[in-house]
Amino acid sequence: MDVEVERLLFLFCPAGGAPKPLALLGGRRRRAAARPPSASAPESPSSPHRPASPSTAEHRPVFLPSLLQRLAMDNSGKEKEAMQLMADADKKADPQEAINCLNQAIDIYTDMGRFTIAAKHHITIAEIYESELVDIEKAIAHYEQAADYYKGEESNSSANKCLLKVGHYSAQLEQYQKAIEIYEQVAMSTMDNPLLKYNAKEYFFKASLCHFIVDELNAKLAIEKYEEMFPAFTDSRELKLLKKLLEAHEEQNSEAFTEAVKEFDSVSRLDQWLTTMLLRIKKTIQGDAGDLK
């Protein structure tokens, strides 16, 4: 319900009475209009000759629903405008023009308090920046805004999906501290969820790799912390790989590093992001050729 609607309900509802939904108020008004005079309710026995107050007898039943209906119609018009903008965006051959339409639709939905829909449109814009305009910084900004809106609506799962995109691209852009904070945040929000806790090890693994790129000691300390926070991480293949990589890095042994990666890849295929991060770590070994073959 819009803020203006809530304000009107507060102002015009009977003292001490709970705000009534628009549909209910309108229904009462229709029933009152349809009721014949003989069916009207008897006067209260405690005040048989007390005249009805004009403000309560006339304004509340008539004025309040009419205002609410007008506001509902205004919002309906705004939503139609937003939907037209979405349709226009679908027809645009130019990605930037489509983004302009989407941004206008977002403004309308945020004015209406429809933040979940606004978040979805921010994701659409982010995807255009990822795949068509290839502007990762702007894609990150829109994923972050979508995550904020989802959090405000307590849609934490949807917020985390957006944050993981931010973490993914932040690490690629060498914004490692930002990526670490996001992966830790999402891991901690999932590790206590019975349905999602097994994903936490992946997020702690990615945070550890970001630490490793920055500094070997940072990685060791982070891994110890993650084991304490999430004991299931201790027996994971990801942690076993990390410990082998740390040992190989300490010994400046690029062959042992590559062998550990190959062993892991034979069971769990490395994606492009993991391959990139592991190569960045391997390049810090002196005399390394810069590949994982």
From TrEMBL:
> What function does the entry list?
Required for vesicular transport between the endoplasmic reticulum and the Golgi apparatus.
Name the segments for region: Disordered. Answer: 20-58
Sorted UniProt keywords: ER-Golgi transport, Membrane, Protein transport, Transport
How is it placed in the membrane, per its record? Peripheral membrane protein
Similarity comment text for this entry:
Belongs to the SNAP family.
Protein name as annotated: NSF attachment protein beta
Compositional bias of kind Low complexity? 34-56
Task: List the InterPro entries hit by this protein, alphabetically.
Answer: NSF_attach (IPR000744), TPR-like_helical_dom_sf (IPR011990)
* GO BP annotations, alphabetical order: intracellular protein transport; regulation of synaptic vesicle priming; SNARE complex disassembly; synaptic transmission, glutamatergic
Q: Which organism is it from?
A: Amphiprion ocellaris (Clown anemonefish)
Q: A Gene Ontology molecular-function term?
A: soluble NSF attachment protein activity
What is the annotated localization of this protein?
A: Membrane
Q: What is its main location?
A: membrane
What does UniProt give as GO cellular component?
synaptobrevin 2-SNAP-25-syntaxin-1a complex; terminal bouton; vacuolar membrane
What is the top-level taxon of the source organism?
A: Eukaryota
